[in-house]
Amino acid sequence: MPIVVDVDVMLARRKMSVGELAERVGITPANLAVLKNGRAKAVRFSTLAALCEVLECQPGDLLRWEAGAESGVGAESGAGAGTETAARAAAGAVADG
Predict the structure, then answer these.
(1) DSSP 3
(2) Average pLDDT, whole number, for the chain?
């Protein structure tokens, strides 16, 4: 996935453990590990906001786009299918957040 999550970088800068961050944000350590290890497919804006508040950072400190990384868009069901799904998910995330 071309979006890279740098939660581990911010944890190191803040000298904070995964368990402490998970507790302060209000998510399980397992869910935080999924996000931290780049296996998450999405993140709620409310979770991103809580991470930023606890880590005292901006969303751009946690998320970055990396060119050349596997995107998977259009790989399974034709070009454009992933884009439509992503647009719907983004619309839902904006409504959630």
Answers:
(1) E
(2) 80
